[in-house]
Task: structure prediction
Amino acid sequence: MNNAVSNAVRAGYARGVLEFRGTFTNPPDMFGYLYMPVLFVVLGVFLSDEEVDGAATNYGAVTYSGGLVLMLIMLGTLAVAQVLAAEREDGTFLRAKAIPHGMVGYGVAKTVHLLAMSAVAVALTVVPGLFFVEGFGPRGWGSAVTLVWVCVLGLLAMVPIGATLGALFSNPRAVGLLMIPIMALMMLSGVMFPLELLPDWVLTIAQATPVYWLGLGVRAGTLPADYAALELAGSWQLPVVAAVLAAWAVVGSLVALRVLRRTARRESGSRVQAAREKAMKRVL
Result:
């Protein structure tokens, strides 16, 4: 690695740390850290009296594990897509492109920021669940390790999807519409409730997506072992979970890099100015 690239990596790392620290002084970001844990703690406690047939757990724990999956999906897709679309609109992406090795630094900064933000968000989701939601949480070190690698691989599988969508959307406000298909996909992947409630054809489609496998892996790390009997294969299928999420991460990264390179080539000062003028009109 030559000096110019090394400097770009160091500058990107420093910028990523600075952006991460800034989230603790920004009320909307702080709200983003806290509202989902609070929401799912309330749901988890409320549903903890409803036992799941065939497993020594309750719907509160199942719902809370689904809340953790939703957090990971939103971090990897919506958050990434919104940041990228917004920085295309305000010219940050174009300025990074204009600097030698600027895209390297930009990528490092966003990676550091996302990883740090995700670690805090996951911790703020998992820890309250351990104390307040009966039946939720790893049953030992093995389950804890499973939860960690599933969260990491899940993010790696989701981030390329978010980056691709962010490169395709020119209006950051339109990215919020993605919440509708994301929630529908979660509902159809058995993330929020037992799979037995879904028709077979829906489950077949769901297994082609990373959402189903991420949900399965998170449940393996946070629910009792006997809950695995309620899964499609009657087990956690952890090797398959790892293989599918890794495949989505690799293939998604290749697609995202291609789309981002095409987007970077098309970026220009006139495009940024036109986007700013549209944004100003929407505000006015």
